[in-house]
Amino acid sequence: MRSEPVVQVQALVKRYGTKTAVDGLDLAAQAGVTAVLGPNGAGKTTTVETCEGYRKPDSGTVRVLGLDPVRQSAELRPRIGVMLQSGGVYSGARADEMLRHVARLHAHPLDVDALIERLGLGSCGRTGYRRLSGGQQQRLALAMAVVGRPELVFLDEPTAGLDPQARRATWDLVGDLRADGVSVILTTHHMEEAEQLADDVAIIDGGRVIAQGSPEELCKGGAENTLRFTGRPGLDVASLLKALPADCTAAELTPGSYRVVGNVDPQLLATVTSWCAQHGVMPDRISVERHTLEDVFLELTGKELRS
Amino acid sequence: MTVGTYTPKPGAAPLPRMIGAQAALETRMLLRNGEQLLLTVVIPTLLLVLFSSVDIVDTGKGRAVDFLAPGILALAVMSTAFTGQAIATGFERRYGVLKRLASSPLPRWGLMAAKTASVLVTEILQVILLTVIAFALGWSPHGNPLAVLLLLILGTAAFSGLGLLMAGTLKAEATLAAANLVFLLLLVGGGVIVPLDKFGSAGAHILGLLPISALSDGLRDVLQHGAGMPWGDLGILAGWAVVGLAAAGRFFRWE
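Output (structure tokens, whole complex):
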């Protein structure tokens, strides 16, 4: 299915005064859902806003759906949907009024009533934008991004500050967009969100992409995964090691508590349990600790707090 | 919703529909906003009625309403094209509305055209209302309607340029404060209800160069005194329009 990337960023540099926000960033996003993950100040929003045509690169090239977002903006704008991190709505407008307005700017918009229903905005009724809850404002911004039936949607931290139900509703919608062939670029610092939604994850730090791949690929890389079980003390660890793939290690940490480190996959789990069966061992409390994207993320970007 | 609901089918609506929708929305936002209505409808109406019926300011020979009505029409134009537009646009910029619309299919010039249309619609409503009230107060206007129309249009252009310049360069709160202050100062010192000759001849000459003075003076020349084309005032307004719109075009920041 891989064809032309929907977003192609090459050697992008963007400075604000003396501060370099994006520092030679390369990113190719294919059709599907791409999560741009990074700590605060990593350059996520600047990168996305350059793709949306809001910022002009200081150097480097950006192509979105094959178009230059600044010079070919008129051609590009109808084909993309944009959800800003905040705002974007007249303070005196009602939710349905604003959404209907954005729909009117497009040739073949979605059914506005169905979208309102879908995102649970029906209860907003005649309430003005300023008096909507933060979650309702976020969902309205999301609705405004998709109502024009775009090919590509940019969502800048779409679930920041949402309660679990609203977050779930947003995730479900992203899933449906993906299923219907809409590409999505979303920024987030929720690892869980990236793991759940994305086909592809780009981790940004210091204005550069420092890792990119599917969530599985990223979790596989970096540190090893761990499998633990308990059994009777003094098992023959050397024999277990022989049954395991060459790159694994195994040890009895405390009497009766065993740890296997390596690429923990279903095959490895089967190998360990069948070794236990052969040796008459009941592996109590067997557990696997696979690396989450969060581990990878912290490993790559460090643990110190960002501004 | 079923599978395929979101299948991409992008496209911009036809330009006239986009601009029409935008102008309708902007006008609704304005008419719904209490502070804006105070500025554009309540204050001009009150001033017209109050100063026509109570002899507070010496408006010279003739009926007070004949002097006041042209000045109040000028004030109405300023309240909508300058004060109202500056404040509304300042807050749209602050709340990211301009930013969000910039990535919609509506081009920037289309947004500006819609804003202008919305200002003109509001002004038409104001002129109708104030004219009816002025007639009820015994107003008897003279002059060439074409000259009046030209003055109103050039006045709108001049005030729009200055209003957008303010909205696009200052913070929203600063715009709110400054636009109201300027409104008040020009109301007093712009020949709207107080004749300019009250400020002495030097003062009158300098104040006469303000866009509000040019508009109120030009409208008064035509409507009260039945003059032909007030070229001097039209020239001043055209000058402000060129400077204001060019500066707004050059310095306006969308975010």
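Chain B has a mean pLDDT of 94.
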